[in-house]
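call fold(seq) -> tokens
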Amino acid sequence: MLQQWPRYVWIVRHGESAGNLARHAAEAASLPVVDLEIRDCDVPLSALGERQADALGAWFAGLPEDERPTVILSSPYRRALDTARRICRKIGEGAHEVITDERLREREFGILDRLTKIGIAMHEPQQAELRKLLGKFYHRPPGGESWCDIILRLRSVLDSMSIEFADERILVVCHSVVVLCFRYLFERMTEDEIMAVDRTAEVANCSVTAYALDPSRAVRGSHMALESFNFVAPIEQAGERVTLAPDEPLLR
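ret:
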């Protein structure tokens, strides 16, 4: 049974993106809409985001060869894929090519896409009230996804890991809510538990959440033990700024 688990999994949020900067500017100026004219999936890294990805890649490259990733999976969104490719280049020849997987994509926001907190209250007040009633875990905006929808697609990612990449060391590059949904699955959390994590910790750009195969520390039947969450030392050690830019409207 144990060979059906990866040996190690790192889950990394992409580096700071142009979208993170645009959302921050819109929120700071109390604007209803984020000023971006490209698709969310095409949003690139910022200059800082590129440096964050390079710093993290150098950290992975500094690990002993038998402790580096052997498989690299990425969301197909440009900011995640560029992060993964920059990390891969730093690791060098020992790394596999980046494998894109659409199941790792950002949450789809539907009619709330690009709206700020003010914009949602202005243009979609019914959705704002519905989200308060249901909570962000279950609320699905029209045309978008709830956290449960993301978790559903990630369950099949875990199945793929066990079938295709058992006993491998897997690096996954994705998005902040996807990182948290992986925690929900690996640690078999409840809604209250993962929402408590979400309230207390914004997933940092290029932060690392890591799990190791360890049957002696099994939690609720999962043999993947949490080693770190929101680990940003590689970014700090490289002298780069740690950023906590949210990807979604600031509604709690």
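The chain has a mean pLDDT of 92.
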